[in-house]
Amino acid sequence: MIDSKFYCANTTCLPFINIITLNIKNCQFACLSQSPCKAATFHRSTSNCELFDNILNQNENMLTDVDVTSMNVISGTQFPSELTTTSTSMTSYLSATPPTTTESSSTSTTPSSSSSTSAATTTTACNVFLNQTTYAVGFQPISVAVADVNNDNKPDIVVANRNSNTVSVLLNVGSGTFNAQTTYTVGTQPYSVTVVDVNNDNKPDIIVANSGANNIGVLFNAGSGTFNAQIVYTVGSSPYSVAVVDVNGDNKSDIIISNFGSSTVGVLLNAGNGTFNAQTTYAVGSNPNSIAVVDVNSDNKPDIIVSNYYSNNVGVLLNAGSGTFHAQTTYSVGTRPYSVAVVDVNSDNKPDIIVANSGSNTTGVLLNAGNGTFSAQTSYPAGNFPWSVAVVDVNSDSKPDIIVTNSNSNDIDVLLNAGNGTFNTQIVYTVGSSPSSVAVVDVNNDNKPDIIVAESSSVAVLLHC
């Protein structure tokens, strides 16, 4: 029904989800892949796709709108996701979308589905994330990690609450739902958190960067998902990002920290039993605020990759052995790089660099050229102030995709991998206020990765359909 929208005289017609799609076909595929969807409208000027679960056979109740194409499910028939179905025409205006399990606050999201077309056969697969479910945490949650902390084979959520001076632990109770938080006091302004077993007792511990206290806190796992009080280690000024990786090959996890105020990275080698030596520092660019620790030159020694916020570059510090590092080699990126991830995105067995450029509103991809050197970045448009980046295959095509939080536009971008290390235009999911850190992990054991994001006063979970 071109140039028409639903009037719904006898039906309350509010979409249960709003999404941004590239075109009418993608709106159609989003609806076809989900059982609740009965109809959809696609707004051409905004690319907004509205999905309805309470409209059927409303053709007699239409209003003229030259910007809109409306679509009904034919005869109420719903095509299930991830099945091959036969239709008479690819141009039929059909639609359907995902069931929403929204608690607390729900907001709009943006789906995408992959499809292949051959004559009269259409295959659709669901690449949609459902409306967010939010859970209360402390004030200004700024970093999120997801790990099974109580050994029940269900990933739990750990959040650093910057202005509450706490970390929150939300235990997974099954089906991707979580208990209310348990909080633990840490240092002033915790800015980054990770969860790794540092004392070899097979229980993941919490490591937090306390940016206002200039120290690192280590909270040992006491069992059953509870944690002891933090033990602190002094580091540089304003530690902003923490990673925990064995960098000297002794089978003990070491701490690597970016000291934002000192313009250094610090390495604290594990001395055994989860205790750590004083940091060794390495000069990097101006105000490093994100680090990743990955072997980028295939020598079986993890290297340090850091985003240098005010230098507008990323630095690569190759591991020289025994937990020491060479001086950084820098690569220009966009303005104000805020977050970095290192993952092989083009299937050449060489890890690539992905960076969120908060000042230029882009996501940058630097392909590994071999021996730990990198090509110039290719940039992709993002939302307003891209803050955090994760790289995970979200559509089961064995190609890692990019997920980015946009703090000032209150949304998340998903850039599906198009192959050879290139990416499609972002799909946008609206979330809560000021999304910062993002993790992408299967939290409901359906073998599909879900999105977990820290917002201004909550943590949100967007389950994969």
Automatic annotation (TrEMBL):
Domain of life: Eukaryota
Domain Apple, residue spans: 21-60
Region (Disordered): 84-119
Coiled-coil intervals: none
A Pfam family that the UniProt record links to this protein: PAN_1
Keywords in alphabetical order: Signal
Name listed for the protein in its UniProt record: Apple domain-containing protein
Natural source organism: Adineta steineri
